[in-house]
């Protein structure tokens, strides 16, 4: 069965444990290898779909240095670019409006709280360091669409570093660094939230999971979730968990000194599906596959897996 998408360069591919079954012409690459993405200023992956993600491009620019100024500047749905300067101590979760770009100046830090995106669209968050958040670092929920979370650094906090749930969709999480986080990247609210089925389409690429514990990501219901060219180092529990009939493509990643690379099912959650292919493994279990997974409709360039450690460790995180 052929699935044809609006992008004239691409048709869908079905991924199985035995390999890829091409259902049409391959998509043209959109970005060069490694750090080239950082130079383009544009997302790759699911955030390019559904009209794309441009954030506050074309709007006015405001620089903020306090929690109250930040909360005011990021509110509302008018196009806007908000630059964060210095360290800002916030309490709770700051609500972000649609059509917003939030970008940190060199050394920008949000501490004590995080950012929440609820029922919004077209948001970009870049170059921030999240530290000591009392809830989540970034929380995306309630049908939020077209989000790009890029080149941030997450240090440990109380709950999730970067959680996506409740029917959110068309999201790219790229070039971020997660240092020692525990509940890192939850994708899917709960086993009972079946409305997430057919949503939660997320690309995770060129992220550095450094000494994390779990959930990188932990997936429920979503398909296809694209996890590629990430560097996993010294992961204490597990890297990727596919549950509740989710479909995950796990390709071109570099796993080093990881306890478990793939969990099929997790806790009380039933098993999902995953296609693991073309990964590089050092002192870690070989990633397993289970079932078949629908392919992605966008173009992307897969870096050589053995080079991902140097590419990602040199390029991921806030500047």
Automatic annotation (TrEMBL):
Subcellular location: Secreted
Location (main, coarse): secreted
Listed SMART domains: Amb_all, PbH1
Coiled coil: none
Domain of life: Bacteria
GO molecular function, one term: pectate lyase activity
Signal peptide: 1-38
SUPFAM superfamilies the record matches: Pectin lyase-like
One cellular component (GO) term of this entry: extracellular region
Record region (Disordered): 41-60
Keyword terms of this UniProt record: Carbohydrate metabolism, Lyase, Polysaccharide degradation, Secreted, Signal
Family to which the UniProt record says this protein belongs: Belongs to the polysaccharide lyase 1 family.
PANTHER family listed in its UniProt record: PECTATE LYASE 18-RELATED, PECTATE LYASE 21-RELATED
The protein's name: Pectate lyase
Organism listed in the record: Glycomyces terrestris
């Amino acid at each position: 069965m052929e699935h044809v998408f609006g992008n004239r360069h691409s048709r869908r591919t079905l991924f199985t444990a035995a390999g890829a079954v091409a259902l049409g012409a391959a998509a043209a690459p959109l970005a060069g290898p490694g750090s080239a993405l950082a130079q383009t200023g544009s997302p790759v992956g699911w955030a390019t779909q559904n009209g794309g993600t441009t954030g506050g491009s074309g709007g006015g620019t405001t620089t903020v240095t306090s929690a109250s100024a930040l909360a005011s500047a990021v509110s509302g749905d008018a196009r806007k670019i908000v630059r964060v300067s210095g360290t800002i101590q916030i309490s709770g979760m700051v609500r972000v409006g649609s059509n917003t770009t939030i970008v940190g100046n060199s050394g920008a830090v949000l501490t004590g709280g995080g950012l929440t995106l609820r029922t919004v669209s077209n948001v970009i968050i870049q170059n921030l360091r999240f530290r000591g958040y009392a809830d989540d670092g970034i929380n995306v929920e309630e049908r939020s669409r077209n989000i790009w979370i890029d080149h941030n650094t997450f240090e440990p906090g109380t709950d999730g570093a970067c959680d996506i749930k409740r029917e959110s969709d068309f999201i790219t999480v790229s070039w971020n660094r997660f240092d020692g986080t525990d509940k890192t990247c939850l994708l899917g609210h709960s086993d009972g939230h079946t409305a997430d089925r057919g949503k939660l389409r997320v690309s995770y690429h060129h992220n550095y999971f450094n000494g994390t514990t779990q959930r990188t990501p932990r997936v429920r219901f979503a398909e296809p979730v694209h996890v590629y060219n990430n560097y996993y180092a010294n992961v204490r529990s597990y890297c990727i968990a596919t549950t509740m009939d989710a479909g995950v493509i796990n390709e071109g990643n570099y796993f080093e000194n990881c306890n478990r690379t793939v969990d099929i099912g997790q806790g009380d959650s039933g098993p999902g599906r995953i296609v693991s292919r073309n990964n590089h493994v050092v002192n870690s279990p070989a990633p397993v596959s289970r079932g078949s997974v629908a392919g992605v409709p966008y173009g992307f360039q897969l870096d050589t897996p053995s080079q991902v450690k140097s590419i990602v460790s040199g390029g991921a995180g806030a500047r």
